[in-house]
Amino acid sequence: MAATAKLPIIDLSSPDRISTANSIRQACVDYGFFYLVNHGVEGQLLSKVLEESKKFFSLPLNEKMKLTRKHHRGYTPFYAEKLDPLSRSKGDSKESFYVGPVEGDMAQTNLNQWPSQEIFPTWRLTMETCHKNLMSAGKKLISLIALALNLDEDYFEKVGALDTPNGFLRLLHYPGMLVEFPLFWVCKEKFHQPRLWEDVLHIKGAFIVNIGDMMERWTNCFFRSTLHRVMPTGQERYSLAFFLDPNPDCVVECLESCCSSSCPARFPPIRSGAYLEERFKLSYGE
Fold it and tell me: CA angle at residue 267 from 264 to 271, to 5 degrees?
């Protein structure tokens, strides 16, 4: 029987920013995962997102394929993605729908694909509202992560680290689970064999936040990107994931607060866009 991961609970509404940043720092060093509560995204809105999603995914495949993913936006069918390139499976047993930025650069927002308004009159409004709310929560969180790394709280915003989608920070929402039921497993020591997997339990109303591979690289492996995998349940399950990424032209290089003469940078600088494109090729065949 797997152990249960004791992930820290971070309160995004806490007025004590320094204490909160210190808690985030410890969480990212120890686990690379934490729960986020009081994030400002209403449960009613999240329920609406899942309701709209269920309607879309219940369509016949040929209808969904009309919105096949282009430029990382739109629908992907079962087995079209393979997040673990070393896996022997034919692909991931899931289908997804990707939405990118909904505000700002028109060249980016116009890449989004939307189901027919005739069939789904409230789909677009629901998804855009949710995206804006999640972005607001993400900006608050990333400023605390900057403080946790002994940086100015607007550091990541100044270097262009608040583009979307996909990347160095992810907020997850898994609704409809019993408190005692595990969502998925995490493995803190990804290079050790055999791997020890720990259960992650559901906390009502909380997001689960994890550090991505790019942030691990950025912090010289000080913050950890932890292996994780979804628990099979034998039934349909819907989830919502929101990713924060640097601007494609942002240069990701070891932060000054994460290296020293005794701990030099482990990775050379790289453009965020180049790094992500390489990862997409491995995972999605694009």
Answer: 135
User: With contact defined as beta carbons under 8 Å apart, do 201 and 178 qualify?
Assistant: no
Let me know: does 199 contact 2? Beta carbons within 8 Å.
Answer: yes
Q: What is the largest CA-CA distance in the chain?
A: 62
**pLDDT > 70: percent of the chain:** 87
Q: How far apart are CA 109 and CA 260, in angstroms?
A: 40
Domain boundaries, the chain: 9-284
The CATH topology of domain 9-284 is Jelly Rolls (2.60.120)
What gap in Å lies between CA 222 and CA 261, rounded to an integer? 15
Buried b (16+ CB within 10 A) or exposed e, 166-194: bbbbbbbbbbebeeeebbbbbbbeeeeee
Pairing of strands 74-76, 240-244: unpaired
pLDDT digits (tens, 9 = 90+) for 245-271: 888 888 999 999 999 999 999 999 999
Tell me which residue of 144, 128, 127, 109 sits closest to 39, measured CA to CA. 144
Q: Report the chain (286 residues): mean pLDDT per 10 consecutive residues.
A: 80 97 96 93 93 94 95 90 71 88 85 94 96 93 96 90 66 54 64 76 87 92 84 75 86 93 94 83 58
Model's pTM, two decimal places?
Answer: 0.88
Supply 238's token pair: 């819907």
The answer to whether the beta carbons of residues 2 and 198 sit under 8 Å apart is yes
Residue 258 structure tokens:
């994460």
